[in-house]
Specification:
The protein has 74 residues and is mainly β. The chain contains one helix and three strands, in the order E-E-E-H. Strands 1-2-3 form a three-stranded antiparallel sheet. Strand 1 and strand 2 form a beta hairpin. The protein is globular, with a radius of gyration of 14 Å.
């Protein structure tokens, strides 16, 4: 998150039971301290929606795709 700049696109990922990318988003505010982290180690960014995906792409499907093996989230 710290490396993202305004205008960058990002995956909107459900990290609960679904574990799937469900939409694309755009960064509208760069990294700032996460107010929910009293230790001050984490940052947040602000997003705006770009578009929902026609179907969620699960983490399992992404891990099974060799072309995505270099992604940090994999």
């Amino acid at each position: 998150l710290k490396a993202m700049t305004v205008g960058d696109e990002a995956f909107y990922y459900h990290s609960g039971e679904d574990k799937a990318v469900v939409a694309l988003a755009r960064i509208v505010r760069e990294a700032f301290p996460d107010v929910t982290d009293p230790a001050g180690r984490f940052v947040a960014v602000e997003l705006e929606p770009v578009r929902a995906l026609a179907r969620p792409v699960t983490l399992a499907a992404m891990k099974a795709e060799p072309a995505l093996s270099g992604m940090a989230m994999i």
